[in-house]
Amino acid sequence: MRNAGPIESPTDPFASVPLPQRATSRKPRIEGLPPGVSRDIFGPTTGRQETRPAGHPPAGSALPPAAPESQPWPVREDPSPAFTDPSPPPSFTDGEPSRRRRLLPAVGVLVLLFVLLAYLVPAVLMSGSVLRGTRVAGVDIGGLTVTQAAEKLRHELAADLSKPVVVRVGDYEDTIQPDEAGLELDVVSTINQVPSGFPSPVEVWRGLTGTTELEPKVTVDASQLSRTVEGLAETVDQPPVEGKVTFKGLRPVVTQPRGGALLDRGEAVKAISDAFLTGAGRASLSLQPAEPATTREAVNRARTQAVRAVQGPITLTLDGKQAQLAPEAIAASLTFVADPDGDGALTPEFDAARALRPVEAVLVDAAQAPRDATYEIVDGRPQLIPSRAGRGVDERRLSRDLVALLRRGGERVLPVTLSAAPPDVTTEEVSGLGIKEAVGSFTSEFDCCQPRVTNIRQMAADLDGHLVRPGQTFSLNDVIGERTAEGGYVPAPQVVGGRLITIMGGGVSQLATTLYNAVFFGGFVDVAHTPMDYHSSRFPAGRDAALLYPDHDLKWRNDSDHGVLIKASSTGTSVTVTLYSTKRYEKIEAVESEKRDFTPFRRETSDAADCQPVAGQQGFTIDVTRVFYEDGEVVKRDKKLTTKYRPRAEVVCTAGG
């Protein structure tokens, strides 16, 4: 009861209960209040209407009122300090279920609140940083900001990547540096896969109870890593041996197929990468078996065809004309290659253009043949001769027919047909190359009427008119090819390894020396040449070149911005090579040192029937330097070239003496 003072007990307990007033009524009598209970419990009396419990008669009734239903004793939640009831409130058993119904929702709310707090508190603490328990290749970055995590990975994980890796393949070991492998830690991509931001309940639980293992992201320079692995493979690979059939002269030479073992490139890349990432420092690589594409059966069939190919000449016929392909020409033009279908077979291929080169003119009139663009020297200056299309032997058909003949056997006669034949060198290809004047020339002399003269003159004819483009490297052996009888060459003496022997095409070192000196004075780059064993008075000391197919070659590079036309001509006693292009230097000079370190020659006799007398000559050493001039001044000087000649023994023939 609000703002109530102490309650005094009235004499009449009902006198303190105000009753509602009516316009015409008398004060009613109220029944049923227990002794000592104030009427104030019913609220203020002013303006209050009469309230009758159910079953009570109206006021003024003669019947006594019915007994009121029992009600639970009201309990004040906040008892007024002005009223203190020393007696405990009465307990009513029928109120417990209602109280439990009110408590259960409250308990649920408390549990939910606890769960939310159990998630939200650690989630708030974890937000904005890497999820706790996160590790990258053993480096713990949990609880760090993204920036801190990136710096830690750079310092700790990148350091592991900088360690070299030792790779082992069988008994072979090698060391690979990280930069050689092309490996680099991609910190940004690694951090991007790390859980961050506001964590989910699952992430909070994982962060509190477990770990998150992440693989570092690594960038790989694919081309660099591939080169590293390929370089390693070059050392450790044991390639399979493919079966093949080749010719040594007219004799077929057979190589049977044999298995090998190759480095597993894919496995090697992964193993090397893993070794860098984990810091293991070692990687074991393996070789995988590799089988040859060819089979023994295919090789044996190819050998049978090769034997059949060189059993005799093959006659080509055209409109009553005939030309023969000699067995040597067939062997030089016939190869056996692996079948592209991958069935292990060896397929014969015939180079008809090569085989036809020495005999096509017999079958095709010169007026019909195609003509390459070239230059003729008129009054000492080159003049362009335009190219011309023509007709020639159908090379594709000849190749097909000859291969069919090898497979089936039978008569060795093949009719040929003509087809359109474009020039090998067109006018457009040689125009505008700056070929306008002689830039280097040299002539050497020889004795007439010897077998070597035939070879020198044949090589000069083969070389004449060849064009070397800007930046191109010229190889005399590649341009001329192997010297053969079909190509017009004959056996002749030549010094090989200090001994004078007779070989096919002997003596052509004379033309190689002539070309070398033309290149020397033309100012072009000497790529490779081999000095002669002995000095010959025919050639300038320190400026000669030996030629032997395929061991000793003459190579030079056209380092100018213009083309170079080679013109070669010969007589019975001399050969001349002149290079035409655009001059770059006023003068080029050969500066020779004094001869030194002389060594005496020995004398020997021979009674062999094929003995050839040789004049003795002492050995010596000489230096040659090429010097370039422009406007009378030295503008360039080559590195000194030193040549050491062996002493040449004097041979006296005593047979029949």
UniProtKB/TrEMBL annotation:
Region described as Disordered: spans on this chain: 1-98
Keywords assigned by UniProt, alphabetized: Membrane, Transmembrane, Transmembrane helix
InterPro entries attached to this UniProt entry: Glycopeptide_resist_protein (IPR052913), Vancomycin_resist_VanW (IPR007391), YoaR-like_PG-bd (IPR022029)
Transmembrane segments: 103-125
Pfam families the record matches: PG_binding_4, VanW
Domain YoaR-like putative peptidoglycan binding: 182-279, 308-412
Protein known as: VanW family protein
